[in-house]
Design goal:
Shape: globular
Distance between the termini: 35 Å
Radius of gyration: 24 Å
Strand order of the largest sheet: 7-6-15-16-17-14-18
CATH topology of one domain: FAD/NAD(P)-binding domain
Low-confidence stretches: none
Number of helices: 17
CATH architecture of one domain: 3-Layer(bba) Sandwich
Helix content: 25-40%
CATH class of one domain: Alpha Beta
Bound molecules: flavin-adenine dinucleotide
Number of strands: 20
Strand content: 15-25%
Length: about 475
Amino acid sequence: MSDLAKDQEWDFIVIGGGITGLGTGAILANGGNKVLVLERNDNVGGRLRPTEKDGFILDNGLHLLKYGKESALYKTLELSDCHPEYIKFIPIRNYYVYIGLDDEHLKKTLDKECIDKNKWTKRGWLEVPHNVNKMKGCDYFNLWKLIRIYTTCFKCEFNDIKEKSLIKFLAEKRMCRAHGCIEVTRYLKLISTALMHCSDPHYISAGEIFRTIKWMSKRKVLFSYPKGGWQQIIDKLKNKIIENGGKVITDCEVKQLIFQKNKVEDQNAIVDLLSVEGVKTSLGDISSDNVVIAIPPKNVPNLFVDKVIIRRIMPEYQKVFESLDPVVGISIDFALDSVLYKSKTFMYVEEPSGYGSTISNIDPSIAPDGKQLMSFFFPFPHQMLTRQKMVDELIDKCKKGVYKRYPKIQDNILFERVLIHDLVDSVQVDVNNYWDKRPKPKVPGIKGCYLTGDYLRTYGASGELAYNAILTTCTKIRKIEQNYFI
Ligand SMILES: Cc1cc2nc3c(=O)[nH]c(=O)nc-3n(C[C@H](O)[C@H](O)[C@H](O)COP(=O)(O)OP(=O)(O)OC[C@H]3O[C@@H](n4cnc5c(N)ncnc54)[C@H](O)[C@@H]3O)c2cc1C
């Protein structure tokens, strides 16, 4: 028996010290539970963990809080008494896409619609409106067409269109390229790339994207960045667990769950009632009646090695985990020797689809004085990064795209960092992985066994799905606890 097991009784063991493990742990700890978080790496934070190099704070790929104070992460910090009001979330107010001077279709559209080209042709940038007010002064994304998208999306029921691709949906509504609405598809593609990390209109789920737009349009949402970087958020959640008598242990891999089988009578037959009893780890066995699994989904089935469970629960359940398609991606950071660009904007990038920001203009504290950090991120469906040759070509294409827009970068690089991410989001929220296809927070048939993570059946996509998963899992746990007390 390990030291952890000997001297403690844990109300909850949380497997995985990423943001969902820490967030769930902090809310449970704040509710009076003794929580043990087990992380296999030598540090917590998972995919959200930043690093430091030569005075620059580098995110693990550009990380923005996409819904600012409306984000479920903000709610998580509130619910765990982590005082988000003391963190400054710096909003990004302007959103642009680079079109360049060589987009023939765009020129024709602007000519046809008698739109003043002077605004954009000099700079090659177009504003992408993120609310109705912004739409009014917009050059290219025509107000009436955009209003039509918004009214159409308000009329649609999620369940009717969740399995429908955006391209099919727009064709049915006569709002696609074939009907002269190229900017409608372009606009929705940009929004989906940034919010859902899914840029292919053949895969974007009309239901998921319209539900997101509907949700956003009722709130004042701006992308934002936590001043000083993400580490403070990770630390706050971790400290909350420790303050309440819990522990966060690193270098501790959980190998499998331990179950207890009790014989009970169910409809005149004697059956096994399964409940969680603890976990087997690289540091020994640790017991608890409740376990929250907060690790990426492809590793979840490995924890269930018990024969009864494999026979009774896993065949169907395993298929659910295996069918989830992740998002992968390439991130590129440029640490520059001087301040070359003044913009404080969010920049959409087309071909390949991605986004970026001169992030040190948003938060100067993440770069040394007089220096600049520019970060770009390009999400791809998982099939895209399987062959090295393909990866090299994509990196080259991504870099060329950036240099075309920012030619001064190349002569002023202190260092550049290219990361290939084989896991960006655990699931690409699209026509194949919409709401119903994803698992719920309670593992069926096993008492005390819960899931959380950026693949759960809850709202949003990418990190927002992770933060909503924290709230969904905690709500489920509370409901179950209340039922036991009745
Ligand atoms: C390049 C990139 C850009 C992104 N951009 C954004 C963005 O702009 N905005 C946003 O909101 N989100 C973004 N995301 C997504 C966001 O980072 C993730 O959704 C979120 O961090 C997932 O958190 P998690 O805790 O569910 O998983 P993870 O962070 O993967 O944490 C899981 C943890 O479990 C540990 N673990 C695994 N197996 C075991 C085991 N057997 N025993 C013990 N520990 C184990 C792992 O080591 C890991 O620390 C981005 C991600 C990437 C990679």
